[in-house]
Amino acid sequence: MRDLRERIKGSMPALITPFKNGTVDEAAYRRLISWQIAEGSHGLVPAGTTGESATLSHEEHNRVIELCVDEAKGRVPVIAGTGSNSTVEAIALTKHAKEAGADAALSVAPYYNRPTQEGLYRHFAAIADAVAIPIVVYNVPGRCAVDISDETMARLSRVANIIGVKDATANLARPSRERLACADGFRLISGEDGTALGYMAHGGHGCISVTANVAPRLCAEFQDACMRGAFEAALAIQDRLMPLHDAMFCEASPAPAKFAASLLGMSSDEVRLPLVAATEPARARIREAMVFAGLIKA
Q1: CA-CA distance, 90 to 83, in Å (whole number)?
Q2: Which one of 10, 23, 260, 296 is separated from 211 by 20 to 30 angstroms, measured CA to CA?
Q3: What is the pTM of this model?
């Protein structure tokens, strides 16, 4: 498991799920995955928030993970999104990810329920006890209405197969506090592109990225620079990408990422209700950011 922990690093796109006429576009998804690997992405994260997991049926959710594992062919780690606000459902999704051959599972904090810290601990511990797969805990208070405290994270880090956190709090004190409090080897992964530079300087190991869907090579080069301590080089890439980081959330995600992917011919811009496609003002902003980053021509 230690070897896998060390492979969970760098730029790992939270993959969009391409749709075509209301169904998963499997051919486009495979192309996207192969392109990501060719462009230098260090790992892949299917069926997460950016993959519109909330609107996928269980069958689609499972299929998306199977496709990713099959297309990746072990070249990079696959960290499958398997979270739920029902512990029983999260266990079932995680069991499938293991059976499908995923290297690890990404399990989001239970949303809507608003459990206590003890409830959060027991939720993740129950998943870890039920499924022998490495688990990355996903802390995103802005979506879940609950924040996994540093103290709870430290407890979770001592559960044998809970190996890291995806931290989307954008609180740059968190990685230092958790690095000091958590078990040795616990992986600290940013879940927020705009603050990933600071997160890495605080001892982070990588970023599960939205922007990497459309700028995989730049995001990988940024992470490579951070991992070797070349923060001046990383800052130069950050400056190129910052308008795009912001544009990816100018409207409800992943609509901006899907429009950006459509400009590259990687996917349609189709999303599922209650999400809607990016508006014209958003599209103009996304195009401008992609031109600024050098991804498309004006």
Answers
A1: 5
A2: 23
A3: 0.97
